[in-house]
Amino acid sequence: MHKVWAVVRREFVERIRSKWFWVMALLGPVFFGAVFLLPALLAGRPGIKRIVVVDGTASPVGARVTELLNQSKVFYAVRVPATDRVVDSLTAAVGAKGLDGFLVLTDAVVESGTAEYRGSNVSAFGAIAALERAVGEVVDAVRLERAGVDPRIVERARVRVRLATQKISGGKTTGESAAQSFSLAYFMAIILYTAILIYGINVMSSVLEEKTTRIVEVLVSSLRPFQLMLGKVLGVGAVSIFQFLIWGVSVRLLLAQRGRFISSAGGGNDAPQLFEVPHVSTATAALFIIYFIGGFLLYSAMFAAVGAMSSTEQEARQAQQPVTWLLVLSFVSMFAMLNDPGSSLAVTLSLVPFSAPIAMPVRWAAGNLPAYEVALSLALLALAVVAVTWVAARIYRVGMLMTGKRPSVRELVRWVRTA
């Protein structure tokens, strides 16, 4: 066992000494902060659109639309009457960056709901939606007034119903909203997919490097190939867990200071309410760690076998594609599982060992799972780790000393049988 520990220690020390490890350790919290804080900062500083309302109506629609736009925090609007040359003049002003755009209103806006906006940027969906909303409110009010209906009565009748969502887990209401549940499942899937793929490929690259530089011939003279493979997998796994600890502490500190940071950047006093941070319970964190370890061991063994049976970097990239696609398919299926965590597809993916490391945490975060499904999934994953490691170790034992052409499937089967 001390030989395996020596390999684990070597793999761990060599990687944390690398400058790229610390670069990634720092970039993780920066990326997390950008995902959560940038939308809040951008939302706190909306740009004011300077527009002109060209009023060609015989009713007070143009004046009321202008007033409503100025009451918003999106537009600064000025109303001008429609004349023969006003459109050409305003078009030139937009081209000269003197205006952002202009809104053309005629009597058709009340009769058929037709209006026109011309501007330098018509792909700003938020601004266009605000324009449509303002014009629509005024036109609805004018139509109701013409029909003898008080618009205030209709407005009170149209008060939107806001559905508050709270998740029930284990027979208790957790207080977790739909947005929090979705974001938790989404980010868990991204982190699991990225971490398992990156660190699995690291194992493959390490195996391939030792094989191509012939260092492995020296190593296998003092320890067994299985011990070498086990030490590599555990060493890289320890590095990944250490990096997760750095990310976790950094993210915790970042979230604790998010309100002060956004407020100092101009986000306002209500900045902390601009986004909701998902609640991570102890059970969720434990499940995440367990499935990450299981998925890492499973895929690292396969990536180690890929590195052992390849002779060049190009061969390894080609041979790793089937293993990578197993992870990709699990990640792509995440959206179907979020929509219906109890569907047959979701249950199947959470029980299949190759997709369970991503599927089960996503289902756990999105729905309320029975304990027997989690237990069965973990049991199948554990059996798969043992079986895949056994097969990978036999391929590793023969492949580490083989060079030349990449073996065929028939040759791999013979390696497994004879190793």
Molecular structure report:
This protein is α/β, with parallel strands linked by helices. The chain contains 19 helices and six strands. It has a four-stranded mixed beta sheet with strand order 2-1-3-4, with helices on both faces. The chain has a two-stranded antiparallel ribbon with strand order 5-6. Helix 1 (2-16) crosses helix 10 and helix 16 (344-351) packs across helix 17 (356-366). The radius of gyration is 30 Å and the shape is elongated.
Uncertain runs are 265-275
**How is the largest sheet built, in terms of strand order?**
2-1-3-4
Determine the structural class based on helices, strands and strand pairing.
alpha/beta
- Could you spell the SSE succession in H and E letters? HHEHEHEHEHHEEHHHHHHHHHHHH
Q: What Rg is obtained from the alpha carbons, in whole angstroms?
A: 30 Å
Helix content: 55-70%
Short description:
This protein is an alpha/beta fold.
